Amino acid sequence: MEAEKVVKEIWYSVVFLATWSIMVFLYVKLWHEPRRIRSALQKQGISGPKPSFPFGNVSEMQQLQSKQLSPLSLDALDDWTSSIFPYFHTWRQRYGSTFMYSTGTKQHLYVENPELVKWIGMNKSLELGRPTYLTKVLKPLLGRGIVRSNGLNWAFQRNLLAPEFFQSKIKNWVDIMEESTMEIVKKWESHITESEGGVAELVIDEDMKALTGNVISQACFGSTYAQGNLIFEKLAKMQTALSKPSNLFGFLNLRFLPTKENKEIWKLEKEVEIMILKLIKDREAENQKSNTDGNHKDMLQVVLEGVASVDSGRKDIFEPGYNTEQLVLDICKNMYFAGSESTALSIIWTLLLLALYPEWQDRVRSEIKETYGSMLPHSFHDMDKLRNLKALTMVIQESLRLYGPAITAARATLSEVKLGEQVFPKGINMWLFMPAMHRDSENWGPYAREFKPERFAGGVSAACKYPQAYAPFGLGSRICLGQNLALLEMKHVLCLLLSSFSFAVSPNYLHCPVYNMLLTPKYGMRLLVSKAHKNVA
User: Fold this and answer.
1) Collapsing DSSP states into helix, strand and coil, what is residue 91?
2) Residues 421-452, buried b or exposed e (16+ Cβ, 10 A)?
3) For the whole model, what pTM was predicted?
4) Is 464 annotated as a binding residue?
5) Binding of heme: at which residues (predicted)?
6) DSSP-assigned letters across all residues of 432-450
């Protein structure tokens, strides 16, 4: 009996300690930590909407988000910006350009103040990284690739991939860009020939995605778009499923539950990884059969050889349960998604603006013809001539300002971080909202909401008061690695399309930009396309 009593006492003690530990954990996680972070920000003059326990400001966010965005008239072209995340618009009016809010246990800081943006961009520390909860949410789409990774893993991937996007490397992709674009040119010419009056009404979204997808497939993986088409399709489905604001801001992460939607995402993730893994295994088999020419390595080859160094002593970049095979898969998923979708959308939005402003379309087309003359259409290997296309460069910069695909940039304080004169505690998720930041009249002047490419005549530094607040490709050490590639590809594609066609907005086009992880036209980009020497009414 005495032994049984001792066992019961031990059992009760274990239960008591476990219960007490859980209660302490919940107290710290749900109450103490959020209050500590908010108190630290309040002491530095930062306010925001008052949170409610335990969900913070989620209820107000959901109420403000519930209004559906309707298509806008072209006379009110810019009115969509306050509807993407309407709570940002509402709270900015109440609390200024920097404010805090919470979604349950997650504490967020909205940043639009250009001085603070500057300090965020200047910070090189690994302790200012990506929000860690997003890595879990977006795992099916991006894994722990460079877009979402932190610390030594991110640093390793950046050092591995950055040299492949130097101008000296990506200029070798020009032939692929031209061949891919000319396929679209021939397709559109066929549509125009078959159309009445030599004007074709086209929805250009899928053609632009096929074009940029073909460039990434060939240049990075040595395959064609047709081979990678299934991968792009499945990534697009995952993108749509994961693009809810509730995922972005961490309202409630229920990705572990076996719901119908989650099961579909898991299925897509598995299928994408199987297809990419086949590409990897096929390449490894080829490498075993023959020596790879080191002067003609594509991105996949660089990744395989670079990751091999991890097996040779770089285990420090891994968290428990992560391995080299998964690292290669995640890098490949990031290249497929980030390298194709954002560039296609950049071209789509630029063509819309050129269609809306025919005087700029004519100016850019004249500049292209004056620069290249009779050498068109296959003549864009001369990088100096491409750099001298000033009007085209200004149009692209202004398009990326007003309709850059990247809507947000996010940072997380992985430990205490000092930015300028302010000190931010560990656990803050910082959000920059590009559409608002790029339309700030205090930075861009009284015509900040208007399409005026001439503002970039003297470059970004002369276009606004705070150049650091122009961030279509992100900012600081986390700036998009593919920036040079995206700009080069945009210039080549637009040169070929504008030298071949004239563009006008279709009367059937519905202007409704929406958040789908990137800025996308909800109803597609519908344009009237004719041969360049014809006028489109």
Assistant:
1) helix
2) ebebbebbbbbbbbbbbbbbeebbeeebbebb
3) 0.91
4) no
5) 480
6) EEHHHHTT-HHHH-TTTTS
**Whether residue 173 has pLDDT greater than 60:** yes
Confidence category of residue 535, pLDDT binned at 50, 70, 90: very low
The upper half-sphere exposure of residue 324, i.e. CA atoms within 13 Å in the direction of its Cβ, equals: 14
Q: Please, what are the domains in the chain?
A: 47-62+77-531 (1.10.630.10)
Counting Cα atoms < 13 Å in the Cβ hemisphere of 103 gives 20
The band of 11, judged by pLDDT with boundaries at 50, 70 and 90, is: confident
Residue that is written with structure tokens 């360049």 in the block: 532
87-117: per-residue pLDDT in tens? 999 999 999 999 999 998 899 999 999 999 9
Confirm if 516 and 84 have CB atoms less than 8 A apart.
no
For 373-394, write each residue's pLDDT tens digit.
766 655 667 778 888 899 999 9
C-beta of residue 386 within 8 angstroms of C-beta of residue 368: no
Nearest to 55 by CA among 250, 243, 244: 250
Looking up tokens 């939607």 gives 261
Rounded CA-CA distance 203/194 in Å is 16
Contact 472, 400 (CB under 8 A): yes
Integer-rounded Cα Rg, in Å, for the chain is: 25
- Helical H segments across 162-224, by residue range: 167-170, 174-194, 205-221
Q: By C-alpha distance, which of 430, 439, 463 is closest to 120?
A: 430
State the CB neighbour count (10 A cutoff) for residue 251: 19
**Confidence at 27, pLDDT banded by 50, 70, 90:** low
* Mean of the per-residue pLDDT values of the chain: 88
Q: Which two tokens mark 453?
A: 């490419």
Nearest to 59 by CA among 101, 110, 22, 95: 101
Question: Where does residue 522 rank: exposed (0-12), middle (13-18), buried (19+ CB within 10 A)?
Answer: middle
Least reliable range by pLDDT among 114-123, 246-255, 276-285: 246-255
Of 137, 83, 58, nearest to 514 by C-alpha is 83
Closest-CA residue to 463 (of 494, 489, 440, 497) = 440
